[in-house]
């Protein structure tokens, strides 16, 4: 797929310039100087010869077949040039030229024209507004980058050309190998997802690395990422904002979904390893490209000084890694050659005067321990340490075993050459211990991901038809929100228990309703304009007598009239007061790129303050529902603290799956939430105390 971009038989540089220092000149120079073996055709109507090559006035004049076109002519000429590429049967073009969508409305117009022309002409495009494409294995450097990285197994795509340059520069400085470099530019045609697929199929690429600011089709991205991530690590740094976060949110769920929740959920559900900084992106790439995956979370640390050992141990504590107690035989063996004041337990401190030989023996001994799944070796470059010798010794052992070994030779100047030695032997070295720990942790999590059984999905009864009329009525009446009785009906149909409720329009009706339901009761204002009732004092709980109900009616209705004089008040709802249980929130929200998401979190009035929530994209699998409950801080509270009995977590999970089904059934739902959902003791279920639904066009 997209083969001509990476392994073309010949390349035409359209806009090849005669002037050194101009982009069109540097691209041609890069293609020639980095050893591309196919034919190269410079195209420029004004020139005869550039860099020793015959120049053609137009693509149409080039005699041979052309595999790839690299375009660097001014923006107004690009569409025409692409049309000519189509006439010549070229199916792949990298467009370097800027001045399109990124530059405003005129540029957007040009880009739309370009896309149309490319489609009509059968030409696929990378760019425009990009740095170009590099393939170290086929020796294609169709870019104006200042260099060519070593051959390697990391495939990198980036929406930012500047980031490409920065990553390339570091790769050159540290001799880090890459398989492919793809600067995506405006992604007018070929998307991140297309490139991910191409890299997944590429035998030279072992690790896929990406920088994105957004994706065009969230669903396809997830589908493709889920397939790829089971075969190759897919590490992505995501920045920027999604448009969904910008829209005003009328529910807690919408407000809490924020800008990043959808990407975070999508990455988790499709096995993407998320890097949170450029440094982390690089660190992870080095670990994944060079070392085997750990089979489990058990890690051993070897160090020549106490502090870094503790720093690494602390970082492990914050991660999924575990500092494993070493076997007695391992400790006994370490005692035979380490000085008596060394520390024989994990972290193993082999002291500041450790020689290369001591490092080698200690590492060899520790990796014999079957309990150890991976080792982090730390080195502080003291005056007595033979840093390079130690690097070689560690590399020797690392190449003998099939468990990951990561190092942190700390600092810069004294460890520069040893870091290159380690890299040469595929042992990633990090400036600081925490980086080694977080990289090994990412590998450990990835191992868990690839070992995960396939997801399983719930089969729920088809209930849609039973409440379709409600949604249709709301739309016909041009309303955005379902009324309280409508919400009640929808939730009841989908199997949610709700408190007994009666509607009252007068104080007398309220008292009668309370008597029928039985004390204590809750009273809530009913008004289509009031979304968050408690914010304006529209709820009273624990009303125990006729008098309390009468007073509450007066209180609530006058307060609401004072605060929101224009609100239409339909009356109050008298509700059975459910005692006990824990309050959670569950909800549906819609993201512009990924569609419906389900939210779970700590409920009640502190929802937006504590923000203890998790999100997943619909449809939710059983595993998604379980994980999203577990990853909140609320989870241990639901499990029960200080002798409390466990809450009905299974019922929450089921509720999340039902909401997911509801979102599938009704694409018109923009936001919905049940808050609070009262969770009773294990086996006793949940009760939807309050809920709201907002719908829009689907
Ligand atoms: N076919 C072939 N060659 C053509 C041509 C055509 N239709 N029209 C013009 N040319 C030639 C010109 O003769 C010129 O050659 P010369 O330098 O030998 O005179 C060459 O193409 C370049 O044209 P020129 O008009 O001088 O443009 P330029 O070099 O100043 O700028 C770009 C062209 C593409 C570099 C510029 O428009 C641009 O987009 N720069 C920014 C690129 C960028 O930042 N990309 C994103 C990176 S992340």
Task: Describe the protein's topology.
Elements lengths: L2 H4 L3 E5 L8 H11 L5 E5 L5 E2 L2 E2 L13 E4 L3 H13 L4 E4 L9 H17 L2 E3 L5 E4 L4 E4 L6 E9 L2 H13 L3 E7 L8 H10 L5 E6 L5 H12 L4 E5 L13 H6 L3 H10 L2 E3 L2 H13 L7 E6 L2 H12 L4 E2 L4 H10 L10 E2 L6 H13 L5 E6 L7 H12 L6 E5 L6 H9 L8 H19 L12 H13 L7 H10 L7 E4 L2 H11 L3 E6 L12 E5 L2 H18 L7 E6 L5 E10 L3 E8 L4 H4 L2 E5 L4 H9 L3 H6 L9 H17 L3 E11 L6 E3 L2 E5 L3
Parallel strand pairs: 1-2, 1-5, 5-6, 6-7, 10-11, 10-12, 12-13, 13-14, 15-16, 15-17, 15-18, 18-19
Antiparallel strand pairs: 3-4, 8-9, 8-11, 20-23, 21-22, 21-23, 24-25, 24-27, 25-26, 27-28, 27-29
Helix pairs in contact: 3-4, 6-7, 7-9, 10-16, 11-16, 12-13, 13-14, 14-15, 19-20, 22-24
Bound molecules: coenzyme A.
The site of coenzyme A (COA) has 28 residues, from helix 2 and helix 3.
């Amino acid at each position: 797929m997209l083969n001509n971009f990476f392994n073309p038989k010949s390349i035409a540089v359209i806009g090849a310039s005669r002037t050194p220092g101009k982009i069109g000149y540097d691209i041609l120079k890069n293609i020639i100087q980095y050893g591309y073996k196919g034919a190269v055709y410079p195209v420029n109507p004004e020139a005869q010869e550039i860099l020793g090559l015959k120049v053609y006035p137009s693509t149409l004049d080039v005699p041979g077949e052309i595999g790839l076109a690299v375009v660097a002519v001014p923006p107004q000429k690009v569409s025409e040039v692409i049309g000519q590429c189509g006439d010549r049967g070229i199916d792949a073009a990298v467009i370097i030229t800027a001045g399109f969508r990124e530059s405003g409305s005129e540029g957007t117009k040009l880009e739309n024209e370009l896309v149309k022309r490319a489609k009509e002409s059968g030409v696929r495009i990378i760019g425009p507004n990009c740095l170009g494409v590099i393939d170290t294995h086929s020796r294609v450097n169709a870019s104006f980058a200042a260099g060519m990285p070593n051959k390697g197994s990391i495939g990198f795509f980036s929406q930012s050309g500047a980031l490409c340059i920065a990553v390339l520069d570091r790769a050159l400085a540290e001799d880090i190998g890459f398989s492919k470099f793809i600067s995506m530019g405006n992604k007018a045609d070929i998307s991140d997802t297309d490139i991910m697929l191409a890299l997944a199929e590429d035998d030279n690429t072992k690790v896929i690395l990406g920088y994105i600011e957004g994706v065009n089709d969230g669903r396809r991205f997830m589908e493709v990422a889920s397939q790829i991530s089971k075969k190759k690590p897919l590490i992505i740094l995501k920045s920027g904002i999604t448009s969904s976060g910008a829209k005003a949110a009328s529910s807690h769920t919408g407000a809490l979904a924020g800008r990043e929740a959808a990407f975070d959920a999508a990455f988790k559900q499709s096995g993407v390893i998320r890097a949170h900084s450029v440094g982390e992106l690089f660190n992870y790439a080095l670990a994944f490209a060079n070392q085997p995956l750990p089979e489990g979370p058990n890690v051993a640390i070897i160090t020549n000084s106490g502090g870094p050992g503790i720093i690494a141990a602390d970082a492990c504590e914050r991660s999924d890694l575990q500092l494993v107690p070493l076997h007695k035989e391992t400790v006994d063996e370490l005692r035979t050659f380490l000085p008596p004041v060394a520390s024989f337990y994990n972290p193993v401190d082999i002291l500041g005067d450790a020689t290369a030989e001591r490092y080698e023996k200690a590492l060899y001994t520790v990796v014999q321990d079957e309990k150890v799944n991976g080792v982090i070796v730390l080195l502080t470059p003291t005056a007595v340490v033979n840093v390079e010798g130690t690097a070689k010794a560690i590399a020797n052992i690392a190449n003998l075993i099939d468990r990951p070994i990561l190092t942190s030779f700390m600092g810069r100047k004294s460890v520069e050459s040893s870091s290159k030695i380690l890299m040469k032997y595929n042992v990633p070295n990090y400036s600081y211990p925490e980086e080694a720990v977080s990289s090994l942790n990412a590998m450990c999590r990835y191992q868990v991901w690839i070992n995960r059984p396939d997801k399983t999905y719930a089969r729920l009864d088809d209930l849609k038809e039973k409440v379709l009329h409600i949604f249709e009525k709301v739309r016909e009446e041009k309303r955005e929100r379902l009324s309280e009785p409508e919400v009640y009906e929808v939730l009841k149909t989908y199997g949610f228990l709700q408190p007994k409720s009666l509607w009252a329009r007068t104080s007398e009706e309220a008292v009668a309703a309370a008597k029928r339901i039985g004390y204590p009761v809750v009273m809530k204002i009913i008004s289509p304009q009031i979304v968050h009732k408690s914010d304006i004092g529209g709820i009273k709980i624990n009303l125990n007598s006729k008098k309390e109900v009468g007073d509450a009616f007066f209180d609530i209705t006058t307060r609401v009239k004072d605060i929101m004089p224009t609100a239409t008040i339909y009356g109050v709802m008298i509700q059975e007061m459910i005692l006990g249980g824990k309050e959670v929130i569950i909800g549906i929200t819609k993201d512009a790129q990924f569609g419906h998401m389900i939210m779970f979190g700590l409920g009640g009035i502190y929802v937006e303050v504590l923000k203890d929530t998790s999100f997943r994209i619909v449809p939710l699998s059983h595993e998604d529902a379980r994980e999203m409950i577990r990853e909140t801080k609320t989870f241990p509270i639901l499990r029960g603290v200080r002798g409390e009995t466990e809450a009905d977590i299974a019922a929450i999970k089921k509720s999340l799956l039902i909401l997911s089904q509801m979102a599938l059934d009704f694409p018109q739902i923009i936001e919905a939430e049940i808050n609070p959902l009262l969770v009773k003791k294990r086996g006793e279920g949940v009760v939807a105390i309050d809920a709201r639904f907002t719908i829009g066009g689907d």
